[in-house]
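Thread: "does anyone have the structure for this chain?"

Original post by V.I.:
We have the sequence but no experimental structure in hand. Need at least a predicted one for the grant figures.
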Amino acid sequence: MVKIEDIKADVEVTAIMTMSAKQIEALGFTEHSVRHSSIVSKWSGDILRGLHADPDRIRLAEIAGYLHDIGNAVCREGHNQSGAMMAYQILTRMGMDYYDALDIMMAIGNHDEKFGLPVSDISSALIIADKADVHRSRVKHVRQDNNIHDRVNLAAEKSYLSVDGDTREIALHIQINTELCPVMDYFEIYFKRMQLCRRAAEFLGGKFSLVINNLQLL
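Reply from O.Q.:
Generated one for you, tokens below.
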């Protein structure tokens, strides 16, 4: 049985993630390295765990979360699709069951908001976990063009997910320093992502909520 610990220790995965982070940094995007992947892995598992999912589904969600951005080693454009294919090859090489590897491939292929849709419990958890990671530590180089993504992430002092297993409510809590960035800037770039999170929560039979500065906005 392939576990998240096996994925993190794999030499090929480590090399791919190192190259992925290198390309993303060169392009000037927010951080997509081991930090982000580890958080998304944990939160993907936490979502399904909070909803009392089967341990095997939690295991697969954690692996999908860790590998979801490896396609950035190829190209930022279409990284969800290239990453999905790469993940399938890695997982089957490690001896994972074909159906489980395909489940993870499908989740990774659908995590990007441009074309992605919640098509399984794993993909739904991955979507929410990925979009929830908004934090100032993700800004590595502040660009001179007053980039809105930099402003929003720099202003995000804290973000975390809570899951109520009884009501099946999945809430994203964010603390934004409004002296650095108005809350409306967050909605300007994240509204489509929040819509996708809502659809993902509904797929899981639940509800998605957004709480910014202790005020529920969705």
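V.I.: this helps a lot. The radius of gyration is 17 Å.
O.Q.: and The chain has one domain: 4-216.
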